[in-house]
Amino acid sequence: MTATSTAANTEAAENASAIPKILYAVSEVAPFVVTGGMGQVVGSLPAALRRVEPTLEIAVVAPLYQAVFAHYGAALEHVGTVEVNLAWRTKGCGIYRTQRDGITYFFLDNSDYFNRENCYGYYDDGERFAFFSQAVLAALEAMQFVPEVIHCHDWQTALIPIYLKTLYREKYPQMRSIFTIHNIEYQGKYTLDILGDVFGLGADAYPLVEYDGCLNLMKGAIVACDRLTTVSPSYAEEIKAGGGYGLDHIINIYAGKLTGILNGIDTNLYNPTCDAKLRVNFDADCLAKKALCKRELQTLFNLPVSPRTPVLCMVSRLVPHKGIDLLTTIIDDLLKENLQLCILGTGDHLYELFLSDLAIRYPEQVVVNIAYNAEISTKIYAGSDMMLMPSLSEPCGLAQMIASRYATVPIVRATGGLKDTIKDCRYGEGNGFVFSRYNSNDFLQTIRAALGLYNNFPEDWFLLMKEVIGQDFSWDRSARDYLELYSTLT
Ligand code: GLC
To answer: What is the structure's pLDDT at 4?
Structure first.
């Protein structure tokens, strides 16, 4: 062994001891099961951390939903069964394991709770995720993965930091928890009377989880966790100052443990140079080929194939905070312009109806897919010219980063992660179009500015596309920030 390699090994060993062993506990993880951004983040961050710190011990644990078993059952190895106590209930929990890209994934099974068609949306979600949270802690030894830090995500796993401070305080006194808020709007709020009966907590936990006359699991996690993070620096500020959906006060009290770390995207998964979902690949040096993706998109959706008609897209959950109201307000004015609009997403029934109806009213201009479909979304990102994201609030947002990767120019409202990732090209160097006030007129004027550049200054538009595709939205920097945060917990 050479002197240099000995030094490198010693350094690696020192780093290894500085960064604790981590378990991610989460209610969804790509590619196994994903309904939104959190699943994508948890699906790509562990591998990114490992790339930066190859000695890191990290695993992920999630519920074994019906769909996971259906698609990945053959790859799952049964590693044991434990009994989980949840208040007066004792329930069995099967433990399964698989490896993917060097990361170990555990899935916890209880068919009453998780062998269902969807991940969320059931009357007993509170009980289901309380069971999962209890099961994670009960299963650690059987999983043979007892971490030093459990990193929990959103309200579904908010009970884990709470259980660590109460029911598991004696068993795991040294175990630390991190709680990441992907969206503060969904807090896991329940009536006070189920504290013991459903969550299995004693009266001593009441001050921890009570908030504003309810049980609020996210509030409990904010108080109980050792470190609190959210998914962009701007969102970390916003949730302290009016954007906390009622939790601002609590966030302020615990602001000392809060950090905003910007999400990244999996740049291997979203890669226009070799994405197999595209018939034609392109990169920054042969951007002209993007036109072929546009042609493919227009053909796929039976839109008039017209290279100079700008295609605008929106790939989004159809829920109020995504700013769908701004779009519905301006839509008839917007569609007077020469443009095509592709929308992909699922969500609130009224939005789904409105948009489906829009596609019927404007068959030459509008295509709406009420679906969550990775293949179609990639074709839309690659084939569009602009992407709309007029969010009322946006903790981070991934769509603007994915669109950029395919040289599609984002038009966004300056909020949360959108503010941190997109700068307006009208005011100096920029990689998109940005408006500030949540106002339909500002949204329309901003789209018109983008259309003006596209229609009248094609060369400038081309330069803008180059700037957009050149942005680095990989995990690299943020992975280092997370590692630094983890190292403060040893
Ligand atoms: C949630 C947020 C979104 C964020 C994602 C991943 O879906 O609404 O803004 O990008 O989580 O953290």
So the answer is: 46
